Amino acid sequence: MENHKKVHRTFMNENIGLGEYQEKGYKNCKTNPLITNFSINIPNIYKIWIERAVKLGMYPSRTEAVRIAIREFLKTELPFIKKLWEDEKID
Questions:
Q1: Domain spans of the chain?
Q2: pTM
Q3: Do 69 and 15 touch, CB atoms closer than 8 A?
Q4: CA-CA distance, 47 to 51, in Å (whole number)?
């Protein structure tokens, strides 16, 4: 099993390694112009499994677990989304 706390990832030519934002002096989304707050509703079972993964040390926090999940989704889907966007000329 991959330990995400130690993983340094690259996405779309942007360095997004864990702790990058703290290194730049940003503490949260209120002080970091690159971060935004985005609320979602998820099934309770998702929350339970995410919290278990955090307790097992797979992720440093629930927030980071969700960020990684979204990042992995975008790695797969972003080329398709971009193509649709360009084809449909959606503004």
A1: 4-88
A2: 0.59
A3: no
A4: 6
Residue 81, pLDDT score: 87
* CA-closest candidate to residue 65, choices 46, 82, 79: 46
pLDDT of 3 over the 80 cut: no
What is the per-residue burial (b if ≥16 Cβ within 10 Å, else e) of 65-79?
bbbbeeeeeeeeeee
CA dihedral sign, ordered 62, 68, 69, 70: positive
Model confidence pLDDT, tens digit, residues 33-88:
777 888 999 999 999 999 999 999 999 999 999 999 999 998 999 888 888 888 88
Question: Which one, of 4, 1, 6, 20, lies nearest residue 72 by Cα?
Answer: 4
Assigned token pair, 87: 């084809």
